[in-house]
Amino acid sequence: MGELRIAVQSLKMSVQARMQYRVDTLVASIAVFVRESANIIVIYLALLKFDAINGWNVNEMLFLFSILFLTYAVVVSLFADLRDFSRMIREGRFDRLLVRPRGLLLQLILNNADVIASVGHGTLGILLFLLSAGRVGIEWNPVTILYYLCAIIGGVLMQGGIFIICSALSFYFVETGSIRSIFYWDMRRFAGYPISIYNKLIQTLLMYVVPFAFVNYFPAQFFLRKPDMAGYNEAYIYIAPLVGVFVYLLAYLFWRVSVRRYYSTGN
Amino acid sequence: METMIAVEGARKYYRVAKRGKGLTAAVGQLFNRKYEIKKAVDDISFSIKRGEIVGFIGPNGAGKSTTIKMLSGILYPDAGRVEADGFIPYKQRKQYVKNIGVVFGQKSQLNWDLPLIESFELMKFIYRIPREQYEKNLRQFCELLDMESFLGQPVRQLSLGQRMRGDIVAALLHSPELVFLDEPTIGLDVVAKEKIREFIRYMNKERNTTIIFTTHDMQDIEKVCNRLIIIDKGKKIYDGSIEEIKDRYTNVKTIEVLLENGGKETETFDVRRTSVNAVLERIFAERRVKDISVCEPEIDEIIRDIYEGRLRLDAPSAEGGAL
Lengths: 267, 323
Prior knowledge:
Helices cover 76% and strands 1% of the residues of chain A.
C-alpha cells in the first residue's frame, strides 16, 4: 500500500503546486481546451458538408476522438515525467530517483502529473463523450461498460508504453524529441480518423508499429460496427485492450535493458 | 572499527566527442566522430570506517562528483571495486539506498512551489519511515537547524541557506547511517554554513553517522572533518588529517611586499631550502619596497599551491613561485 500513499501525496503536491497559480492554471487549462477544440470544430464543420467519412458520421467521429482525449488525460497525469524525460536527464534530476529505494519507473509514473494538460484534454474528452455517446446507439450494459473501461486502460498503457520507449532511447541518444514527435504526436494525429481512410503504409504503422488503431479505432468498432470493419480481422476488436498491455510490457523490458547504460555514462 | 566504504583501484572514463571549429568540422563530425577519453576517476583507492567524517576537496572537474556518484550507486566503475555498507552500490541499488542519504547541493529535491513539509511527507512514504521516527527526526532536525520559522513557506520564497537546510533534512529523515553531501555549503553565508557544519558534527557524534562530503571551502574541512582526501585530475593526491598538511608546511613562508609604486607582490618559499636572507636581499636589490610582511600560508593557499602543482605532497618541501 506504500505505493498508493506515494501516489496520493504526489498527486496532492502536483495539484497544490498548480493551485499556487490559480489564474495561470485556469487560463492555461482553458487554452489547452480551446486549442484542441479548434481542431475538432474544423473537422465538425467539414463533416457537415460531407455527411460522413468512409461511413462514419459526425457523432461517430466525435466518439472516436473522445477516446483519444480521455486516454491522453490519464496518460499525462501518470506519464508526464516520461513525456519530458530528456529534459529530466539533462537537468540531472534522474540521479535523484536512483538514490531512492523504489523502482525507477514507479517513481517516474507517480512523481509528477501535468495537471493543466490533464484538465484541458479531460474536459474536452468528457464533453465529446457526452455529446456523442448518446447519439451513436450504444447500449450500455455490464459487458459494454466493462469493455469500455478495459479499452481506456489499454489505451493508456499503449501510450504510456510509447513514452517509456522514447524515454529509454534517451539513454542512447542525447535528444529524442524528434523521435517522440514522429512516433507519438504524428501517429496520434492520424488516429483521429478511421484508419480505413489511409493507404496501406499508414494503416500498417497504426496497427503494428505504433498501434494507435487499438486505442480508439478498434474499440469504437466494438460499439459501432461500421462497414469498414470488414477489411480487418474481427479479433482485433477483442484483443484491443490487450495490445496496450503487450506494448507496455515490451516497453518495460526495453526500459530495463536501456537504463543500465545510464550507470555507465551518467548524463 | 568496521569498514563502511572500500574503494580499490576505481576508474571511470568518459568518452567525450571531440569538437572541431567551424562549419566544415561540424559537418565532418556527422559522419566521422572522434572521441577523446576523459579520465574522470583514474585508479583511486581508499577505505572509510563507520563513524568517520571525511571531506573531499579538489578543483572543479577533479573527479569528486564522479566518486560520490560511484559511491551512491548512480554510476558504476569501469574498473576496480566499490563497496559500501556491505553492498555493491549500483548492483544492489534498492537495498543499498535505503540506508544512505544523498544531498546534491546544486540540485534541490524539494518541490519549489510548496512548503517544505509537503516534500518531507513524500519522503516519509518513499522511505517507509515509521511515523514515530519521522516525527522525532523532524522535530529534532528542525530545532537543530532553526527551521520552525520557515517550515510553512513555499520553497521558492526561501533563501538559499534555508533551502539547503530543507534539502539536508529531506535526505536524512529516514535516519541513514551513511550520508553523502555534495557541496552542501556552496554559495551560503557564514551563518548558514556554520549551522550546517554544526548539524553535520551533531549527526556524526550523536548518531555515529558516517559522513562524506565535498566542498571548496577549507573552513568546512577544518571545522568538521577528521580526515581529508584531496583529488586532482582523477587521482587521489592526499589522504590524511588536516594537521598533517599544516605541519608539513610550517616551513613554508610567504613574503608579501608592498612596493613604492603601489604594486603588491608575494613570494612563497621553503625556509629549509632558501634562506630568508637570500630572498629578502633579492627583493631589496630589485624593488623599492614600502612595506613588508612575512606569514605562514593559510590552508587555503597550501591547497591552491597543491592544485597548481607548486607544492607536491610526496616531496617534503618545494620551492615557491617566482616574483
